[in-house]
Amino acid sequence: MFCALSLNAARAATGGEPAAVIQVDVASCLAATAADDVDKAATACAAVIDNEKTAKGDLIKALIARAAFYARHDQVDRAIADDSRALLLDPALADILNARGGLWLKKGDKPKAVQDFGAALKIDPNHEKAKANHKAMARELERIGAQMAVAGKPSFNCRRAARAVEKAICGNRELADLDREIFASNARVIREARNPAEAKNLQREQDEFIARRNAGYGRAGYDLKKAMQERLQRLNGVDGY
């Protein structure tokens, strides 16, 4: 009798039946994102993600699903935000680290991309996609580093520059880069020549360009930058090689 009275008192205090436990439906979010249903995905996933009573496992699933949905629709920042939140809940998600690395790459943030690919490999050293991505990005960063090391430096040693035109090139980063590109492109076309005679003719063209450049610099109307750009375009062709 005492128990019955206590239950009745509890019901009276709350104004009715005891509140039922709310079940959060993650299935609708997963189905909508898998079907790429733009109309339903946003609302169905928000109902799960924004509900503080959602179980941790379901929340992670919904965040991952919505991130993939956002990524497919080129909403990169939103996708990164959802993947980042999922990783805060479970930092050991190698697939999501690799996915977020791809998103950083889309944004042009190569260092963060490499960091995520590397983190994925620490968790799963055999993760094939992360392994391939990390290797490719490491090479790319190495190439960028090499380019930065020679940026603003011409093909010749500025300490030995004697001509006025050479000193002008050494004193201007843009001209220095042009000179280095011309040198590299000329070396390429000679290397790809069909025969020694053609290679010899190509080198003669380069020598003649240098001679015209040296003689023309300083004269009225001579545009060094334009002359160098035209030479580079000739070497690389209309399509820029």
UniProtKB/TrEMBL annotation:
TPR repeats: 94-127
Organism for this UniProt entry: Bradyrhizobium shewense
Source taxon at top rank: Bacteria
Record protein name field: Uncharacterized protein
Cited InterPro entries: TPR-like_helical_dom_sf, TPR_rpt
Keyword terms, alphabetized: TPR repeat
